[in-house]
Amino acid sequence: MDTVRKARKLPEQIADKLREMIIQEEMKTGAKLPAEAELMTRFGVSRSTVREAVKILQTEHIVDIRQGQGTFLCAMPGLAHDPLGLRFADQHDLIAQLLETRLLVEPGVAAVAAMRREEKHLVQMKQLLDRMDNAYLHGEDYTPYDFEFHSVIAQCTGNDVVCRLLPTIHESIQAGYHHTQRVEGSYQRASQCHLEMYRGIMEHDSERARRAAQRHMMQTMHDSGVEVPQILLK
């Protein structure tokens, strides 16, 4: 009985060691984990134990197992596809609530980003603004670049918790896009706000960046037919 218990727990113990290895070695998104044989030697366990441990990490969205290629570290390790359970929320009010959340969060994020940004962030933001415009002019889906633009602003803060809120923000961007793509002038208004946010962040002007982010979200809510709470209009 004890032997069975120990055997059952061993993959979990190795999964713990793999998590520690990923953190201690500061592995980056997309990094490939050592081969099974190397992990077997490192931890002194069988191939089946290594495989079970890796599967545990896979269910936790820490690693991605690619057949014939190996095991790779996921983007945002440990963050599930729907961490807030939005699929089970009231879908009728979801879009309004997501946009309201962005209004509450993004102005503050933009303000902090203006103080902490680095030159590499400015380069990335400018490239994404250009790609957004190019995609829009060619009638293509520009939302992936929109998402990345807001991702870079979050990265400017150096706050990992902020970065892990992005799936919620991304969800609202997608929802907002489908609600506003036929609204005349919507893209142009959003584009102008994006540019103003970029300039505020570039100039270390937190108030300018904050106001631009706030105006951007209010306009998005208006174009989506979502009422902006009166308290937030002040």
In words, what does this structure look like?
- The protein folds into two domains: 72 residues, Orthogonal Bundle (Arc Repressor Mutant, subunit A); 148 residues, Up-down Bundle (Four Helix Bundle (Hemerythrin (Met), subunit A)), CATH 1.20.120.
- Strand 1 and strand 2 form a beta hairpin.
- The chain contains ten helices and two strands; from the N terminus they run αααββααααααα.
- It has a two-stranded antiparallel ribbon with strand order 1-2.
- It has 234 residues and is mostly helical.
List the helices and strands and how they pair.
Blueprint: H1 2-24, H2 36-43, H3 47-59, E1 63-66, E2 70-73, H4 91-116, H5 119-137, H6 143-156, H7 160-163, H8 166-180, H9 186-202, H10 206-223
Antiparallel strand pairs: 1-2
Helix pairs in contact: 1-3, 2-3, 4-6, 4-8, 4-9, 4-10, 5-6, 5-9, 6-8, 9-10
Taking pLDDT < 50 over at least 5 consecutive residues as the criterion, the unreliable ranges are 1-7
Number of strands: 2
Q: Summarize the biggest pleated sheet.
A: 2 strands, antiparallel
Q: N- to C-terminal separation?
A: 67 Å
Element-level helix/strand string? HHHEEHHHHHHH
CATH structural fold name of the largest domain: Four Helix Bundle (Hemerythrin (Met), subunit A)
Overall radius of gyration: 22 Å
Count of spatially separate domains: 2
Query: Helix count, per DSSP?
Result: 10
Structural class: mainly alpha
